Amino acid sequence: MNDVSLSTQYAKSRKLILPLPNHDTTDNPIRCGVIGNPIKHSQSPIIHQNFAKQFELKLDYQKYLLTQEKLRSFIEDFFEQGGRGLNVTLPFKKEVIAICKNISKESKFCQSVNTLYLNEKNKICGDTTDGKGLLEDLKSKLFEIKDKQILIVGAGGATTSILYALLQAGAIITLHNRTQSKIENIQKNFSDMNNNINIYSEHPPQVFDGIITATSQFNSELLKPLLQNTHANTFIYDLNYKERADETLSFFKDNGIKRCSDGYGMLFAQAAKSFEIWHGVLPKMTYDLK
To answer: Domain for residue 287, yes or no?
Structure first.
């Protein structure tokens, strides 16, 4: 199973054993949820409930506010009591790896798990759908990633969670971060992929086909020098979404960059991939939070 996603294999097997949506054998809803701290802001329950409606699945999807001390016991109890799957958000995407019996190859490289599930042996397993969700959203926006020069701003968990998928898709990656040692650590962690990850330099200026901002807050001093690295069709993508992406996207638009997007579509696309892992069916993309 080294080269095949554990979760993908499991999802395929579940298609054979899950009752069809219109032939439920029990009135008990399927229990799923999302864990994090903070967690109040999460839109995952609404997204997954809307996905479930497409297949007439009875779903109980809840938000769970956890502490580090309660993390392992909660996850183990959740699955022992019949839970189907958990999404994982900050700050636990790396911490849950120690709780998993198996994680996907992508999660090993990224050191990130956002989806927990039980395999056929009832062992807790982990995968990450962040990178897959990003690729799906870029595809929907008609941005072809293969052989494109991509600059990623930031070197935290948001960056590492998408790197594997981007490299696998054939992107040529350059990282930009104030702390160069963080980039060097990422280069070391991804060295076995036989893909070069470059470090950004202002001189000589390089022109990029796409710039992905993976920082939690807008930083004009960090972004201003990057204007020399853009061309008329450079695609700007902020992993944040809605109002949290407004300042970054407005900055580039005000400086003549027309192709800009936030990560709202990625939010839904990564959720759809998690849904497929748990239920064996991939929902159609709908961007409705009602």
So the answer is: no
